[in-house]
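Lab notebook, bench 4. Continuing the backlog of folding jobs that were queued last week. Each job is logged with the same field layout so the records can be merged later without manual cleanup. Today's entry covers PITH domain-containing protein, a 281-residue chain. Filled in by technician R.K.

JOB TYPE: sequence-to-structure
TARGET: PITH domain-containing protein
LENGTH: 281
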Amino acid sequence: MGLPQPQDRLSQSEFTEIHDALDITGSVALNVRQPVGAQTAPRAASAAASGSADAGHTAQPDVLKTTGEQNPSTCADANTEEEPKPTGEVGPETQETKGQPTERKEADKEGGTQPSTLAATAAPCVAAVPAPGAEVATLQQILRTKDCNLALVSDVDEQLLLNISFKQPIRLASFSILATTPPQGFPTEADAEDSVSAPMVVKVYCNKSTLNFCGVVDEVCAFSVSLKPEDVLTGRRIALPGSKFHMCSSAQFFIQENQAGASYTFLNRLVFYGVAHKRYS
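JOB STATUS: finished
OUTPUT FIELD FOLLOWS
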């Protein structure tokens, strides 16, 4: 059973973001997906560039292969239909022209509306292209960013373990998690394969820098919270008990469950508020 839900007892206005106190290089995340966009994007761009440059050379062979090699039976049928035309069937064609002008006009009308029908069906396909999501990033990138265009994504399952280090002991007053932009290529429907969702159950530890997934089972957390969807959408500050985080050199965040029970968990930003203790020489 978790600890009671947090109450905003502290006046959060007296605490500011302690971004400068973060030891970003010393912070570690477990069970996170490594970013691959930086490796695949240049290859995709070069492939697209080479494809556009060779479009004039490759388009015509593709068309020829499509009409002449992929389906020989279709090509043979087309030839058998076209051969009787010059063999002297002008009379029957003339009779059909005189006797059935209406059918010809209707066929012409149907033929004339075909391109517009194709255009009408192609337009929704263009409009249905999904908006780009966030790029998969590392914990260090997430801690440095001020925007929500990057996403930290779990790898094997929905759980994440983040070990946040500070340059000096601080009084950690509160934190906030932002999860507004899902990563690219991941669905958000819970029943979909490889779906993602925002964090929900979060357990926080203080000065447990060697904590791993085996340790979170037995180690008692200093604070736990069940986030609501609006908490991760607005980045609401979650107040921490001052008696347990007043000399915090590192903080561990164990994200146990996500909002929708999806396969993976994502977040865009992790922000900390507090005050650094003065150093005495």
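OBSERVATION: Residues 12-35+135-276 form a domain with the Jelly Rolls fold (CATH 2.60.120.470).
SIGNED: R.K.
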